[in-house]
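Retro notes, item 3 of 5
We never archived the inputs for the protoporphyrin IX containing FE complex last cycle. Fixing that now. Sequence and ligand:
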Amino acid sequence: MYRCVFPDGQSGWMVTRYEDAVKAFKEARLIKDRSMIAGISEHQSVFTQNMLFSDPPDHKRLRGLVQKSFTPRLVEEMRGRIQEITDELLKELKGREHIHLIDEFAFPLPIIVICEILGVPAEDRDKFRLWSTSLIEGRNGEYANDMQQHMKDFIHYLKFMFEKLRDTPGSDLISQLIVSEEDGDTLTEGELYGVVTLLIIAGHETTVNLIGNTVLALLEHPEQLELLRNQPELIHSAIEESLRYNGPVEFSTSRWAREDFDFRGTRFKKGEMIIVALSSTNRDSMEFDHPNEFDITKEKSPHLAFGKGIHMCLGAPLARLEGEIAIRSLLKHFPLMKLDVDRNDLEWRPGMIVRGVKEIP
Ligand code: HEM
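Structure as it came back at the time:
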């Protein structure tokens, strides 16, 4: 565990060891909603009124409500449609010598999928991409100066959409969330914004990097690429190894010490911020043999790329399915793909949360 000062000036702790991280994810005295700590008053933004920033019992209610509609069955039912979208995107690229893998494939695929699940019209997808990138990259990002305006536009759009779906609900996820809200006053208006925003951002910003980072790892390890080409059935373990070796989410979200307490030899003070360095825990030599090697034949990988405990990623089955279909199809259509620039010239995205390159030519 390391004491650190985070970019916003907050002091706290960074958990870097695997075992410490597992314990931290399950520690009830590390909470997500800082305003619950006595003496701290904090305004909750519209974007944080969701399960990721809540503690029990609110967490269970919010997660349960989304889980009711966002089921493993719904994800499995999307399999055919994800393959169709993948094939359509790859057909456009077929025959070209140069492609921009992120912009032309890794980004559109998860966006189209999550927009279809949520019920966002196809013509509005680009707006969602802009707002989502603006929000996640924040003050260091490309759209830093326009961020406030983007947030206003985003909320305005959602407000209009919620009103429309209230009058004429469809079979999409947002309509189902709205209906649940009206049935048993389970989702407040603010929570509806919070939950939908979380799903949009999680659906846009993570899987794109799973696809990109997996391609990069395979290109950097030609023998593993060759192995996967010859044994496509290894796709499942290849995705798990990619999640461990080069996970799309670098750090967990923040947790706060509810009170003073000793945690595995370190004294946490009430109100201190704790984050888990997921990428570090996934290469902990006390947990993984040869952690810096990329080996797609590993049988099982207890990586923490999706977190652990009550906040463990709700979208993991969807992300895995998208990753598997995307990589398998890409290798089928472009078996001889190569990086078109020097590896060191690739530019990484700013911000502390997502880990991925801006483009892979
Ligand atoms: C939570 C990673 C894709 C929805 C999380 C957390 C991680 C994570 C690490 C926990 C954060 C923490 O405890 O601080 C990832 C990765 C993905 C991915 C690596 C892709 C490879 C998705 C997708 C969706 C999604 C596609 C939905 C469309 C969520 C939600 C939570 C969450 C709703 C909050 C769960 C809760 O607090 O109970 N994700 N995610 N994620 N993720 Fe994902």
